Amino acid sequence: MRLAMLGPPGAGKGTQARMLAQEFGIPQISTGDLLREAARRHSATGLEAKRYMERGLLVPDELVLKIVTERMKEDDAAKGFILDGFPRTQTQAQALDEILSSKNQKLRRVMVLEVSDEVIIKRICGRRVCKNCGAMYHVIFDPPRNADLCNQCNGELYQREDDNEDTVRMRLEQYALDIKPLLQYYEKKGILARIDASGPIADVQRLVMTAVEGEVKSA
Ligand code: AP5
Q1: Domain hosting residue 90, numbered range
Q2: Is ligand 1 within 6 A of the CB of residue 77?
Q3: CB 50 less than 6 A from any atom of ligand 1
Q4: pLDDT, tens digit, for every residue of 64-97?
């Protein structure tokens, strides 16, 4: 099963993609996580990407495509994956289609999580992430049992560098610039599902599962 999860920053893409990955036993491929990991390793790609990420701008297509193409070749992605935050431009969407069609594969469902800017700012400013396993929390909406430690692995929780109101506003502006043509692209293909992601995590999860199961029955 090959799925993609789109939506503005803080809409809950990572939270929902992680749950789907556990449910279906396929990897979550988050371009944001891949780029942050590359930056942590001080690779040339990572260091260049960091300059854009810090300012809330999109990383150039060729860098993102390089990193995501490599990841999709790994063994665990052979049976499928959930793309989280990718594609974000038409160039990325077309390149993805080319990669998949060269293997006789295609994306089955693209889900876009829709939430107001006001909710997004609240979600992002309270987000905490585990340094060790990447699990996500929110200080109010999904708090860890211990304020500074991950429920799953006891790892230390931290706040992402780009999780501040100024950068979030820039990320929102950037999202608004690119999203319309991308949604039209997938609407035309008949694989787009729009999901109201303003409710609690469990409610959004039910909507996401319904969208995915709809695809599974018709596949
Ligand atoms: P990326 O890491 O993808 O960031 P983003 O798109 O801004 O999305 P976020 O990770 O901030 O949010 P999310 O939607 O995953 O929400 P989450 O589940 O964490 O990208 C970062 C940067 O990398 C970009 O700005 C860009 O520079 C670059 N980049 C990445 N991909 C790229 C690409 N393809 N092309 C070019 N550049 C790229 O949830 C947020 C918080 O809310 C959490 O605390 C969570 O617990 C909570 N929460 C989630 N759902 C709910 C709910 N329903 N109710 C209440 N709280 C909730």
Answers
A1: 2-115+165-218
A2: no
A3: no
A4: 999 999 999 999 999 999 999 999 999 999 999 9
